[in-house]
């Protein structure tokens, strides 16, 4: 656990809002602007996990100066401007650090360079100077003077570029004592403070990022230990009530994230336990946002586990919890969860009503009140969940149309979801009686399974293969069946998702 005794370098006055950066965001929501930042990063070969919360911290003045990766991205987005023009403090004024030479014009990495490095940033330099490529927060925070964490960040960066999902997970879940080797018996010897709360929130973000790219299989086992460490932090107590609230919220969100990894890898009983743990944490602290999130995932799990009536009730409970939060997009997603339950009950009228409500709420647009964890929810997810409803109701034509729309609209960052929607499309086309198109979509999924490990997706693809067996003579079907039969990826665990 990194030391929290760095109060001497903390600002002695409240942060000042970054109005210049807020003006640059314009009419876009924080989540929309964060998406533009991620896109700009990809253009110059950087990796940043920017989200609405990060944008909010910048605008609130909590981030006085960004790390070097974000600096390169921001200067790429706003050419001709300096960090000062963007409302940031000079780097030399932040925590007493000397300013580095001016950052060169952003560009992609040249031969011999790695993403996240600029000219002159080589492994022989001071550790951590160029490690912003996978850090969603600035490196001048409490970790700046902690060399072991610089080493962890370097391992993390290399793992993102060279390792598979499990390798990345091993590196990424280690910061500030939330290591895979941690156990609940290793209770902290002192009360938790802001650094521990930040580490917990960071662990949640990293798990979500890894799941977006690699899927759940290979991540779940490694994510359970940080969750135990998080609840050990709660048991140790916190220095302030505000910190305790952050710890409870972070632990609850981590429980949901770990529960989702269990859910997506077919471990339904484990997922149910983690979601219940998050719900209990929310109820104890009166956290309506966490309660809505826990019920949301519980509804999704109940649908997949063949308990559609429970799915409807959990989704309705989530909507009651979310009502005062002011997020139309959250209510839209929860209406879709309810629609999935109605579809499972073969109640077409109830399903259609929930779908109409979900669409109407979605069209109200984004808002600052949208939870950070909902960054995945856009046009693609809306279409994908609607496709699943029509598929459950046996309306294969509508299902395939929405699944195709979902796969085409998905942000390339969400590799797992692209594979999921394309697998849904393949299955719907197969059942609609279009085997050649189904085989083509199935082959695209198989290509993505080199990057994504998800028992849900593998289970869906296995179901498609069974449907296509009688159509081996159709164009492309034999190739798909042969490649699927020879696929050597991780075997599905447990029941998998609905087929």
UniProtKB/TrEMBL annotation:
Residues 1-11 have a biased composition (Polar residues). InterPro entries: TPR-like_helical_dom_sf (IPR011990). Coiled coil: none annotated. Residues 114-128 have a biased composition (Basic and acidic residues). Residues 1-21, 93-133 are annotated as: Disordered. Residues 93-112 have a biased composition (Low complexity). This is C1 regulatory protein.
């Amino acid at each position: 656990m990194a030391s929290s005794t760095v109060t001497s370098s903390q600002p002695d006055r409240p942060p000042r809002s970054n109005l210049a950066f807020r003006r640059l965001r314009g009419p876009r929501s924080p989540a929309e602007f964060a998406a533009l930042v991620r896109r700009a990063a990809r253009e110059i070969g950087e990796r940043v996990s920017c989200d609405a919360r990060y944008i909010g911290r910048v605008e609130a003045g909590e981030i006085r100066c960004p790390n070097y990766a974000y600096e390169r991205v921001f200067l790429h987005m706003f050419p001709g401007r300096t960090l000062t023009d963007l409302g940031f403090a000079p780097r030399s004024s932040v925590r007493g650090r000397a300013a580095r030479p001016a950052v060169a014009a952003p560009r992609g990495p040249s031969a011999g360079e790695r993403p996240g490095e600029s000219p002159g940033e080589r492994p022989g330099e001071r550790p951590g100077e160029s490690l912003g490529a996978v850090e969603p927060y600035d490196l001048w925070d409490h970790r700046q003077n902690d060399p072991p964490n610089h080493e962890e960040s370097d391992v993390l960066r290399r793992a993102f570029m060279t390792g598979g999902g499990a390798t990345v997970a091993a590196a990424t879940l280690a910061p500030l004592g939330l290591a895979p080797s941690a156990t609940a018996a290793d209770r902290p010897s002192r009360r938790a403070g802001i650094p521990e709360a930040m580490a917990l929130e960071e662990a949640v973000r990293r798990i979500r990022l890894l799941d977006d790219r690699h899927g759940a299989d290979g991540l779940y086992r490694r994510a359970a230990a940080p969750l135990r460490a998080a609840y050990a932090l709660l048991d140790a107590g916190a220095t302030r009530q505000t910190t305790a609230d952050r710890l409870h919220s972070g632990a609850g969100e981590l429980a949901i994230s770990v529960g989702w990894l269990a859910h997506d890898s077919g471990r339904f009983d484990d997922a149910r336990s983690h979601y219940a743990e998050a719900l209990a944490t929310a109820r104890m602290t009166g956290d309506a946002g966490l309660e809505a999130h826990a019920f949301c995932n519980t509804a999704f799990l109940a649908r997949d586990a063949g308990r559609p009536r429970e799915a409807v009730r959990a989704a309705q409970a989530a909507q009651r919890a979310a009502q005062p939060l002011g997020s139309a997009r959250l209510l839209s997603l929860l209406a879709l969860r309810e629609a999935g339950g109605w579809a499972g009950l073969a109640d077409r009228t109830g399903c259609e009503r929930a779908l109409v409500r979900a669409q109407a709420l979605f069209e109200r647009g984004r808002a600052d009140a949208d939870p950070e964890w909902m960054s995945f929810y856009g046009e693609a997810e809306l279409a994908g969940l609607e496709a699943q409803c029509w598929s459950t109701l046996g309306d294969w034509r509508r299902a395939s149309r929405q699944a195709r729309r979902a796969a085409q609209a998905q942000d390339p960052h969400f590799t797992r979801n692209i594979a999921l929607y394309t697998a849904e499309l393949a299955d719907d086309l197969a059942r609609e009686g279009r085997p050649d198109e189904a085989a083509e979509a199935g082959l695209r999924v198989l290509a993505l399974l080199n990057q994504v490990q998800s028992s849900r997706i593998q289970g869906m693809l296995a179901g498609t293969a069974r449907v296509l067996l009688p159509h081996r003579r159709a164009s492309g079907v034999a190739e798909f069946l042969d490649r699927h039969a020879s696929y050597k990826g991780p075997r599905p665990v447990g029941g998998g998702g609905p087929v």
